[in-house]
Amino acid sequence: MKKIAVIGAGTMGNGIAHVFAQSGFNVNLIDISQASLERGLATIAKNLDRMVAKESIKESDKTAILANISTFTHIMDGVSEADLVVEAATENLDIKLKIFKDLDEMCQPQTLLASNTSSISITQIASVTQRPDKVIGMHFMNPVPIMKLVEIIRGYSTSDEVTKTIMELSEKLGKTPTEVNDYPGFVANRILMPMINEAIETLYNRVAGVAEIDTVMKLGMAHPMGPLQLADFIGLDICLSILNVMYDGFKNPKYAPCPLLVNMVMAGKLGVKSGEGFYDYSESKKAEKVSAQFK
C-alpha cells in the first residue's frame, strides 16, 4: 500500500493522516470544508512542532511529513487511486452509509475501505457496498499520534486476507492492533462508556460533585483522567451516540444513557469543543486561571 485517503479532517481524521504521513505514506486528506482542511493541517503542523521541540524528529522530517499530505474537497478526486480509504466522519450511521455507498462506486475494485467508527456495526456499513469482504474497522484512539491502540474490527464478511493486511499495516504505523469482532461498542467503548455513564448517574443522583467523582477515580483507581473530564474531551454528543448504539444493539437497560447526559447534549453543553460540559473551558475561565497565576 502506498496511497491512503482519509475522509474527515477533524480531530480523528487529521490525527490518522498525521500517522500515515509520518510513516512515509502518501495521504489524501478529504473534507467538504476547505476551512476544516486548513485547521486539520494546522493541527498536524502544531503537533509536529512539538515533536521537533522534543527532538523526536528533525525540522526536515516535519517538512517531509507535511509534503506527504495533499488535501481535497471532492471525494472522487481524493479516493480514485487510493489503496486504502479510512473514513473518519462524524459518528452518524446515515452519514457513514452514504459515504461507503459512494466510495464503493468511486474506488477501484481492489481498494480496501475502513471506518474509524467507535461503535457502529462494520457489517451494516459493509452491507451497502459490493465489496463487504474488503470493509473493516480501524478504531484509532485519541490523540492518534500518541495512543498506541488500534481496534481492528472484523465485519461478518471481512476476509482473513484483508484483516491480516490491516493488522500488518497498523504495525507499520507503530501501533498495536487488536482484533475484535463486530458487536456494538466493540471492546473499548463497551467497557468505557458504561463507566462514564455510571459516573454521570452518580452526579445525577447527587452522590458527589464533578471534581469529587473525578478525584476518586484518578487517585483511587489510578486513572490518568477522571471519567467526567474524559467525557468532556471525547464530546458528550459522541458519548450519547455510542451509548444509544449499544442500547439499540443489545436492548439492555444498562446501556441506556443517563437523563443528565441527554439534557446536556440537547442544551449544547458538549464538553471541550463547545466550551462547556462538566467543566468550563470558556475563554473567560482560561483568563481567570492565567490571572490567578500572577496573584
TrEMBL record:
Q: Which residues bind NAD(+)?
A: 8-13, 31, 91, 96, 118, 142, 273
One Pfam entry for this protein is 3HCDH
Q: Which residues form the 3-hydroxyacyl-CoA dehydrogenase C-terminal domain?
A: 185-281
Q: Does the keyword Oxidoreductase apply?
A: yes
EC number(s) on record? Answer: 1.1.1.157
Q: Which domain of life is it from?
A: Bacteria
Ranges of residues in domain 3-hydroxyacyl-CoA dehydrogenase NAD binding: 3-182
> What are its GO biological-process terms?
fatty acid metabolic process
Which molecular function GO terms apply here? 3-hydroxybutyryl-CoA dehydrogenase activity; NAD+ binding
Tell me yes or no: is Membrane among this UniProt entry's keywords.
no
Q: Which UniProt keywords apply?
A: NAD, Oxidoreductase
Indicate the annotated site residue(s) for Important for catalytic activity. Answer: 139
Looking up SUPFAM superfamilies in the UniProt record yields: 6-phosphogluconate dehydrogenase C-terminal domain-like, NAD(P)-binding Rossmann-fold domains
Q: Which family does it belong to?
A: Belongs to the 3-hydroxyacyl-CoA dehydrogenase family.
What is the protein name stated in its UniProt record?
A: 3-hydroxybutyryl-CoA dehydrogenase
Question: What organism is recorded for this protein?
Answer: Flagellimonas pelagia
